[in-house]
Amino acid sequence: MKSSVIVFPGSNCDRDIAVALEKMQFKNQMVWHKDTKLPKSDLIVVPGGFSYGDYLRSGAIAGKSLIIDEVIKAANSGCLVLGICNGFQILTETGLLKGTLLRNKNLKFINKDVQIKVLNNETKFTNKYKKDQILKINIAHNEGNFFTDTKHLDELKKENLIAFKYCDENGNGNQEANPNGSLENIAGILNDKKNILGMMPHPERMVDDIISNKDGINLFSSLLN
Q1: How far is CA 225 from the centre of its chain?
Q2: Catalytic residue flag (residue 159)
Q3: Strand arrangement of the beta sheet that strand 162-167 belongs to
Q4: Is 152 among the residues known to form the active site?
């Protein structure tokens, strides 16, 4: 399976995702933000980090970069697109995903491991997980507070487009388990065609027991599956 990772000035998780993809035997290429053509790809990853230093607004400048036009074309033609953390923010800036990511509820940067629950395991990103499975995944963000309008929230629920929610160790989605104030504890969402996933947690950091755990590895196994 061929993958492409988009690299922006300020990206700091592009190498992490590349290592995870290569570990899982993806044939990966790194694509610079000023490029105007994408390699033939089955999967495009918009990685985490702080593109353009988060100046103006997280993801706003990256969302206007040259390569993004090609990402949008590929996404609209059905290519799989994964946006992680800042990548999620960029996808909302481009309109590929609806909603927005606001400042965390405590107005502070958060870097810690949290629990998330798999709500939909019938997608190309999640089919190797069990429904309601609880994962321990790292988050590291300042603007991870997902918000959207009532109409879109209803659509997310009705069409089963909420991929992950923050929860406690028992799977309860309460406010104590919500690290950033996200609407209804939402940690990751899909577009209506389910070929685009945006998520704030970093699955690429959870692919090796030596440095963390392997709770993120089945996201990549799902894609290969």
Answers
A1: 19
A2: no
A3: 27-32, 2-7, 43-46, 80-84, 196-199, 186-190, 162-167, 110-118, 134-141
A4: no
List the chain domain ranges.
2-144+153-224
29 touches 59 (CB < 8 A): no
**Assessment of whether the complete model's pTM goes beyond 0.85:** yes
Q: Out of 70, 93, 143, 204, pick the active-site residue.
A: 204
User: Over the stretch 69-80, which tens digit does the pLDDT of each residue have?
Assistant: 999 999 999 999
Q: Out of 85, 93, 141, 143, pick the active-site residue.
A: 85
**Residue 2: band (very low, low, confident or very high) from pLDDT cuts 50, 70, 90:** very high
pLDDT digits (tens, 9 = 90+) for 123-169: 999 999 999 999 999 999 999 999 999 999 999 999 999 999 999 99
202 is catalytic: yes
In sign, the C-alpha dihedral spanning 166, 52, 204, 31 is positive
The dihedral sign for the CA sequence 201, 206, 211, 214: positive
Segment 179-223, tens digit of pLDDT: 999 999 999 999 999 999 999 999 999 999 999 999 999 999 999
- CATH of 2-144+153-224 given 3.40.50.880, 3.40.50.460, 3.30.43.10, 3.40.190.10: 3.40.50.880
User: Token pair of 160, please?
Assistant: 């089963």
Residue 30 bridge partners (DSSP): 5
**pLDDT one-digit tens code per residue, 18-52:** 999 999 999 999 999 999 999 999 999 999 998 87
Catalytic residue, chosen from 13, 70, 93, 202, is: 202
